[in-house]
Amino acid sequence: MRINIKDQNTQQPLACVEAELSNGHSVDQKAVAWVTAIIATLGLVASAVTSGLGHSNTAAHVAANAMSLFGYFQAQAFIGMCAVPLPPIVAAWTQNFQWSMGIIRVGFLQKMATWYQRATGGTPTTHLSQLNTISVEVQKRRVMRRAIEFTTGAAGRLMARSNAAATEAQADTGRLVLHGIERVGFKAHIETTNIFFTGYTFSIIFVLFTVIGVVAFKYFCEGLVKAGKMKTDKFVDFRNGWQTVLKGILFRVVLICFPQMMLLSFWELTQRDSAGLVVLAILTMLTMIGILAWASSKVVRIAQRSIAMHKNPAYILYSDPIALNKWGFLYVQFKAAAYWFIIPWLVYLLIKAMFVGLAQSSGKAQAIALILIEAGLLIGVSVLRPWMDKKTNGFNIAIAAVNFLSAFFLLMFTEIFNQPVSTQTFTIWSLLTNTAHRYWCHGCHLLRRQRRLRPSPSDHASRVFRICSLHQEPRYALPANAR
Fold this sequence. Notes:
By secondary structure, the protein is mainly alpha-helical.
């Protein structure tokens, strides 16, 4: 609701008062965030368990689709973090996926972030603690803008309203407009200067819980075997080579956290909240880029050696259990001839994170860059079809198409074409419809995979044959000892 104040004689606008009216309903629901997080986690856990039980084919498909779905959640979070004025329903919907970027409020963690920033020479913001003295507005579409006003009981004074899309605090009026990553943090009740530290801490927690979970499961299995509650051939590969498996799992965790930490680290370099946080951002970027670059080069070298020795990249990549368990996270989702596709995929994620993290001052630049990046990816995967089989290719191409549509809608929200309101409304409903369709397709896909679950042969050579036949091109011949 908006009240415009005009001069009675000259009809000149003097000021306006704006207040938020809501029916209490929103698509930003904790239940949605929890359900999406549980689905992604169960997919990753299910792939690990089925692999340990010997269902190699099913495990490879479930892992590939779980990683793709997690990447889709992060892509939706990227849209919400762009500095484009979003309609309230779109901003609320993308807020459901911010958990995938580590934007999760925990009380003691916020105190820790504030302490760390002060200890390293920074000055934390106090937007959330000063809501009774300043007016904070999250940047929204101009045609749908509704301010979130917080004033004191005595502050019945009229506040001047700027017609421009303000992006900075107005000290004289006590008004603050947040956009992009700051908007996401404020909606999650996280101070602006605590956003990077929150995402960084949750990535570290993810790594620690993964290590603890793998070690605990190893000793749990050993205890069951010694107690006679489990057969000795269950999870035998995992129990014998659990350290190599753990390394591979940690590499996969780094791959999952890569988009999150690249975006937040690039953004932190522009904010410079404190010297300690800037150092953490730089070290995180160098470490993750170095790890994944080294791992990718390792996969390429193994494949080239396999081609030189056996005329087939799948021979060593899939027959060597050490290489498969340690480096398989980079190539098992692709067919053997496309083992190299992880390199352009990482470049795609890095460039996307750079534009969203570094270009927070220009929403139009972000929107144009994202639509070009997503269009390039969609064309590339549609032509190359690098994933392991037809269904997995279809699933990932559909995700790339939805991400391209999301980027297109984001461009519409910038009003760069001055399109009418009806077009904007249509894009909102199309965005939600495509997202709902994606969930439905993924659920049906997982159900079909579970119904087709069949035990794989117990001997290692047979499992290697199944994996190699799944990933190789028809023109490649399998070696005699793998048949």
